[in-house]
From TrEMBL:
This protein's UniProt keywords: FAD, Flavoprotein, Monooxygenase, Oxidoreductase
Pfam families: FAD_binding_3 (PF01494)
InterPro entries for this protein: FAD-bd, FAD/NAD-bd_sf
Record protein name field: FAD-binding domain-containing protein
Gene3D superfamilies for this protein: FAD/NAD(P)-binding domain
Domain of life of the native organism: Eukaryota
Occurrences of domain FAD-binding (ranges): 36-202, 342-375
Database matches in PANTHER family: FAD DEPENDENT OXIDOREDUCTASE DOMAIN-CONTAINING PROTEIN, MONOOXYGENASE ASQM-RELATED
SUPFAM superfamilies according to UniProt: FAD/NAD(P)-binding domain
Amino acid sequence: MYSLSSILRILHLYYQSRILLSSIYSFVMPSCQPRIAIIGGGPAGLTLGLLLHKHNIPFTIFELRQKPTDDELAKPSGMLDLHAESGLAALRECGLYNKFHQLTGECSEAQKVSDKDGNILYSDEGEQSERPEISRHALTKLLFSHLPPHTITWGYKLLSAASSTTPNGNEVVLDFGPHGKQAFDLVVGADGAWSRVRSLLTDVKPHYSGTQYITATIPQITSKYPHLAELIGRGSFFALGLRNGVMSQRGPQDSARISSFFSLLDENFPSSSGLASYTAAEACDKLLSDDALLGRWGPTIKQLVAVALNEETEGKPGALLDIKPLYTLPVGASWEHKANATLIGDAAHLMCPWAGEGVNLAMWDSLLLAHTIIRAHGAVGEDIDSFINTLDPLLAEFEADQAARTKEKAEETYANGQMLFGEDGAKELAGFFLRAYGEAQ
């Protein structure tokens, strides 16, 4: 018979040997989980992270911005309409569909089309639409609030990404400047129009679309400007003509976000015109008098824009006019597949907002890429080399499908832009809606 002290000593030696063997194993064997980095904490990156998290696949999201506060996320922002086959399908798989619908009351699916003089050519109440609207801020909060805090690293700016070969295989080294360099087995570029990850895969860069835009917000529009609230309605409003446009969407705090679009050949128009150095209110006279801008438009739409610009300045004293060029990647842009890196969202297929496809394609990418990663991970367990080797051909298939899906949407977006910003865009858009919905409202 062993004494109690002898038994305890044997157990102690046994567990010490287990610890030693575990240390040796971890030293000679690679990590048992793939190192996955998602660059960008927009809808694409957050959706992908949520779907991987549901399957216990580790990852880190690196986001340039600091973590937004609740006050910042409560402010008016652009509205996004989500589509059944893409954005809504991704939310369903994330388990957030019901919570999403609780956040969609700020902008209805109603639509109105006006000519440059404010005459309404088409109006509906969204009866036939199945594309609910949510503010960008609300969608962002919905997504990141359901991720464990440790999975998102805020305030990291990616300076460069480079492929590297090690004794254990290929990896991607990310340079975060003062935060140092980190290596990963898979890097997903969800880092937007000017993606740093894209440079790993292709030399193609965005080009100027020929359109400049200005955004301003009217808070509490119903109580302060009831006649303008009636003009634009409860949902989306389009005033079009002479190759320009003024569009609005309703948003949080009874706001209206007014965006003016101008067809201009000069990519540097904000600086060459001097408008970039004006406040929104200071820019008002030039915008409303220049024939290349809104000079030939009627007083109704001019008043809408003037009120928005003055409200923008009142809400942000000293802030300069928010005027920017729109950029796009070439229709059908793609790249030769390379291991260890891929792109989703605007990083892969940046396009103008004329079809409302940007966020939907981004979330669709995330959904299908998550399926791809989960499939590879489930097939091989926790062996990294096997995971990467299994993932590589699946990733090539994902990218080929992505290129085909987005080429079709990019062609649609380009055609819509030609329609909206023709000489009589209002007539064209009203006719489009009438044909689509079958009757005048």
